[in-house]
Amino acid sequence: MIIDTMVFAYSLLKVEGKCEEATQILAQSDIIIVPDSLLVELANVAWQWVKYRDLSEDTAYAVLEDAEALIEQVISSERLWPRALQLSIQKDHPAYDTLFVAAAELLNDRVVSYDEKMQKKFPDTVFSPTRFLSIQEGQ
Prior knowledge:
The chain is mostly helical. The protein has a single domain (2-138), classed as Rossmann fold (3-Layer(aba) Sandwich), CATH 3.40.50.1010. It has helices at residues 5-12, 19-28, 38-52, 57-70, 77-91, 95-107, 116-121, 129-138; strands spanning 2-3, 33-35, 73-75, 111-112, 126-127. The strands form two sheets. The chain has a three-stranded parallel β-sheet with strand order 1-4-5. Helix 7 (116-121) links the parallel strand 4 and strand 5 (126-127). Helix 2 (19-28) crosses helix 8 (129-138).
């Protein structure tokens, strides 16, 4: 399963109201696959938390290390950016998000994301956390 950045952030930063669900997604994913941009995006989230939410630097580094340990496959953006750009232009959506969609297409897989705009623009590829977990429970 392709896992979006905020699933990692909500779980590893223990965001109230999202942590349990995000952690469940990470635990129930057979294999966690991400574009190589994920760690850069997550580093940016961690930086924001250090700057605006009093997260310690040590915790910020630990979050990235924990995320890295959960990831089983990383896909180079070099393989994804042409399709990601095409999807961005077609659907009027940021390319850093469509990298995840391009990865899912490449692997014939799905993305789990909290991004509601992305879910609406790519309904066959991008699953909400609730949708993903309900499918997992049905298996």
